[in-house]
Amino acid sequence: MVLVDRFGRPVTNLRISVTEECNLSCFYCHREGQMKGKRQMTPQEIERIVKVASNLGIKKVKLTGGEPTIRSDIVEIVKRIRPYVVDLSMTTNGTVMHRLAEELRAAGLDRVNISLDTLDREKYKKITGFDVLPWVLKGIEKSVKLFKLVKLNMVVMRDLNHEEIWDMINYAAKIGAVLQLIEIEVPREMTESWFFKRYFYPLKPLEDEFSKKAVEIRERRMHRRKKYFIPTENGIAEVEVVRSMHNTVFCANCTRIRLTSDGYLKTCLLRRDDLVDILTPIRNGATDEELIEIFKQAIMLRRPYWI
Ligand SMILES: Nc1nc2c(ncn2[C@@H]2O[C@H](COP(=O)(O)OP(=O)(O)OP(=O)(O)O)[C@@H](O)[C@H]2O)c(=O)[nH]1
Ligand SMILES: C[S@@+](CC[C@H](N)C(=O)[O-])C[C@H]1O[C@@H](n2cnc3c(N)ncnc32)[C@H](O)[C@@H]1O
Ligand code: SF4
Ligand code: SF4
Question: ipTM score of the complex?
Answer without folding.
Answer: 0.99
